[in-house]
Amino acid sequence: MLKYDINAFVIAEDVLGQSVTQIAASLAVSPKLSTIRGLYWAGNLHKNSKMKLSEAGEEMQKRLEGGEQLGDIVNEICKAIEASGIFPKQEDAEDADPQASPANS
């Protein structure tokens, strides 16, 4: 099970050279394999802090050889990102009142 927290996102940003927002946007379009592997790796660090990027790629390859699709792994990443709470859920974002923002006080 993948899990993302602030530290995992910072590590992913450092390794991938993009902001979390840019990384998430790329997942929605046509993500590079390096992005998928980097996110998969960062999402696994909570259970194995010594995991290497290459080990994450090897684990992904085993899953593919076991019959999973790359899209299944991407969906798992997306669900874990959503569960992290780093981005507001769509309905929360739609209900938010920009006039009530602390920045407007």
Please explain how this structure is put together.
By secondary structure, the chain is mainly α. Helix content is 63%, strand content 0%. The protein has helices at 6-16, 20-28, 33-44, 53-65, 70-84, 90-95. Helix 1 (6-16) packs antiparallel against helix 3 and helix 3 (33-44) packs across helix 5.
**Rg for CA atoms:** 15 Å
Order of helices and strands: HHHHHH
Q: What is the terminal separation in angstroms? A: 41 Å
Q: Regions with pLDDT < 50 over 5+ consecutive residues?
A: 100-105
Main sheet record? none
Q: Note the total helix count.
A: 6
Structural class comes to mainly alpha
Helix content: 55-70%
Strand content: under 5%
The coarse silhouette is: globular
Number of strands: 0
Q: For the residues shown, what is the average pLDDT?
A: 88
Task: For this entry, give a set of tags.
globular, 105 residues, mainly alpha, single chain
What is the secondary structure topology, with strand pairs?
Elements: H1 6-16, H2 20-28, H3 33-44, H4 53-65, H5 70-84, H6 90-95
Helix pairs in contact: 1-3, 3-4, 3-5
